[in-house]
Write a structure and sequence with these properties.
Blueprint (H helix, E strand, L loop, with lengths): L4 E6 L9 E7 L5 E10 L4 H16 L7 H22 L7 E10 L4 E7 L3 E6 L2 E4 L6 H7 L5 H5 L24 E6 L5 E5 L1 H4 L4 H8 L5 H14 L6 E7 L36 H5 L6 H31 L17 H12 L4 E5 L7 E3 L3 E3 L3 E7 L3 E4 L8 E3 L5 E5 L2 E3 L3 E6 L3 E4 L2 E3 L3 E6 L27
Parallel strand pairs: 11-14, 12-15, 13-16, 14-17, 15-18, 16-19, 17-20, 18-21, 19-22
Antiparallel strand pairs: 1-10, 2-3, 3-4, 4-5, 5-8, 6-7, 6-9, 9-10
Helix pairs in contact: 1-2, 6-7
C-alpha cells in the first residue's frame, strides 16, 4: 500500500463477525487511487457476502478505468446491485442481504476526486484543519441531521439511527431512480479524504475525528487512532476507515525581494515652453526644424480620394442589393456539418459506456449541448440521466432528430434532460422509449415513434392510451 492511501477494518467489541469491506489501492495503470468502504447488512453471513460481492464487482468494473469517471462508478454500482439481487434469490438464508457503499476515485494528476454513494457510509474532505461531510446519509435520521432538525449528538443517539432507505440489493435494479448520489470535487495538495462506516460515526463525533486527523501524522497512525476511538466508545459495530491524501507539495508563491540599492525613480519635470523626453539629445534640440507642410497637403488629398472611392462603392452596393429581388442561398448550407466537441464526446460516451446507466453531469457537458448531427443510440438498453442542468439544443438549420434509436434497441430512458428547438427531438420505434422529467421547448415533434410491420402480413391491433403524462413538478419516484 502506498503512502498516500491507507485502509483498515475492525470487528469492534460487540460483533462476532465483520460485515464490512474496503478498497484502498491504485488502479492498474497507476493514474487513479481507488478508495471504497462497504458495510453489509442482512444477517450473520448475508451482509458479509453482499459486501464481498460489491467489492469484487467494483474492482472488476474499475480495472480499465478511463474516460468519464462518474458513469463508470454508477455502472459498477448497478452491476453489483444486480449480482446481489440474484444471490438473494438463490440462497434462502441470504434473502435480506444488502450493503451500503461509498466509493471515491482520485485523479492526482488533475487534483480531482469523483465519488458515488449509496446508504449511510460516509465521505469527508479534510482541508486546512476543517472536516467537511461530502456525502449525505440516505436514511430518515440522516435527513433530519443534514437538514439541521437534529444535532449531531441527537442523531448519534436516535433509536432509528441505523434504519437506511437505500442500499445495493434493496430492489431489482437501480436504473430507474435517483438512488445513487454522485459528485466531483477538487482535491488539492495537502487535502485528505476520509471514507468510513457508521461503526465510527455512530460513536465518535466530528470534533474528535477532526482532532485525530490534525497534526501531520501518517495515514496509518490516523486510521489506527480512529479505530481505537470507536472501540473506546464501546465498539458497537464493525469499524472501517479508508484515508487518502494528496501528498503533492502545496503551491507557495514567495514575495518578491526588493533590491537593496534600488533608488526611487525621480519624477520628470516639465518646465516653461519645452518638454524633454528621455531619448532627446542636446544636438537634436539645436537642429533646425524641418517643414512638413507639403507632406500634410499630400496626405489630405489622399484621404479625400479614398473617402470618395468608399462612397462610390457603398452607393453601387446598395443599388445592387435593391435590384436583387431573389437573394442567393447561403452556399455554406450545402456543406456537410461537422460535429462540435461536445457532440463528439456525447456520441463517444454512449458508444463506449459498458453499463446500462449513463450519467451526464453538467460539469462535463456544458448546457446547452448544440446538436448538429443526430446522436445514434445503438445499444440494447440504456438509461440516460442528467446530473444537473443538461439541455440539448438544435443547431441553426438542423432539421433532423436529435436522438435516433436503432431498430434493434429494446429500451432507452431519458431522465431529467431538456430539448430545445428541434423539428424532431427523439425518433424511436415500437414503444422502445421511456421518459422521466423530460422537457420539450419549441420542439415541433417531441417524439416520433414508428412501427415496423412484416411485409405481406395481416396486421391487427391499435394504439392504447398514451403512456406519457405531463406534470407541473418533477417526478420523484
Amino acid at each position: 500500500m502506498s503512502d498516500n492511501i491507507f485502509g483498515i477494518t475492525d470487528t469492534g467489541r460487540q460483533r462476532k463477525n465483520n460485515e464490512d469491506a474496503f478498497i484502498a489501492e491504485q488502479s492498474p495503470d497507476g493514474r487513479y487511487i481507488i478508495a471504497c468502504v462497504i458495510d453489509g447488512v442482512g444477517g450473520y453471513t448475508g451482509g458479509e457476502i453482499a459486501a464481498s460481492i460489491a467489492r469484487e464487482m467494483i474492482l472488476q468494473r474499475l480495472v480499465n478505468l478511463s474516460g468519464e469517471v462518474i458513469p463508470v462508478l454508477t455502472g459498477a454500482f448497478a452491476e453489483a446491485n444486480e449480482k446481489i439481487w440474484e444471490e438473494r434469490h438463490v440462497v434462502k438464508e441470504h434473502s435480506k442481504m444488502a450493503c451500503v457503499v461509498t466509493l471515491a476515485v482520485v485523479d492526482l494528476s488533475s487534483n480531482q476526486c469523483y465519488y458515488a454513494h449509496l446508504g449511510d457510509t460516509r465521505l469527508y474532505l479534510f482541508r486546512d484543519g476543517s472536516l467537511v461531510k461530502i456525502s449525505h446519509d440516505q436514511s430518515f435520521v440522516g435527513f433530519l441531521e443534514d437538514s439541521g432538525r437534529l444535532s449531531e449528538s441527537e442523531a448519534m443517539n436516535h433509536p432509528k439511527r441505523n434504519e437506511i432507505d437505500k442500499a445495493l440489493g434493496f430492489q431489482v435494479n437501480i436504473i430507474n431512480g435517483d438512488e445513487i448520489e454522485t459528485g466531483q470535487s477538487p482535491f488539492l495538495p495537502g487535502d485528505m479524504l476520509l471514507l468510513c462506516s457508521d461503526g465510527l460515526t455512530d460513536v465518535v463525533n466530528k470534533a474528535t475525528i477532526t482532532a485525530t486527523m490534525t497534526g501531520g501524522s501518517s495515514l496509518k497512525t490516523i486510521g489506527n487512532k480512529l479505530i481505537d476511538a470507536a472501540n473506546n466508545e464501546g465498539g458497537k459495530d464493525n469499524i472501517t476507515v479508508v484515508l487518502v491524501k494528496n501528498d503533492k507539495e502545496k503551491q507557495q508563491h514567495a514575495a518578491t525581494k526588493p533590491l537593496e540599492n534600488a533608488q526611487p525613480e525621480k519624477p520628470k519635470i516639465i518646465t516653461g515652453q519645452r518638454r524633454h523626453t528621455p531619448t532627446t539629445s542636446a544636438i537634436a534640440e539645436r537642429a533646425p526644424r524641418k517643414s512638413y507642410k507639403g507632406w500634410a497637403i499630400l496626405l489630405l488629398v489622399l484621404v479625400i480620394g479614398l473617402a470618395a472611392v468608399c462612397l462610390w462603392q457603398y452607393v453601387n452596393y446598395g443599388n445592387k442589393q435593391e435590384n436583387d429581388v431573389s437573394p442567393k442561398k447561403d452556399s455554406v448550407a450545402n456543406v456537410p456539418r461537422q460535429r462540435n466537441p461536445q457532440e463528439i464526446k456525447l456520441q463517444k460516451v454512449i458508444d463506449q459506456n459498458k453499463g446500462k446507466i449513463l450519467v451526464l453531469s453538467d460539469t462535463a457537458f456544458k448546457s446547452p449541448v448544440i446538436i448538429s448531427q443526430s446522436i445514434l443510440i445503438g445499444r440494447d438498453s440504456l438509461y440516460i440521466k442528467a446530473k444537473g442542468n443538461i439541455t440539448f439544443q438544435s443547431d441553426t438549420g438542423f432539421k433532423h432528430p436529435a436522438f435516433v434509436l436503432a431498430s434493434h434497441t429494446k429500451i432507452v430512458q431519458f431522465d431529467s434532460v431538456s430539448f430545445q428547438s428541434f423539428n424532431v427531438a427523439i425518433s424511436g420505434h415500437d414503444q422502445a422509449l421511456q421518459l422521466k422529467n423530460v422537457r420539450f421547448r419549441d420542439c415541433k415533434i417531441p417524439v416520433l415513434n414508428t412501427y415496423a410491420f412484416p411485409g405481406k402480413k395481416y396486421i391487427s391491433g391499435g394504439f392504447n392510451t398514451p403512456a406519457f403524462r405531463a406534470d407541473s413538478i418533477p417526478k420523484t419516484k
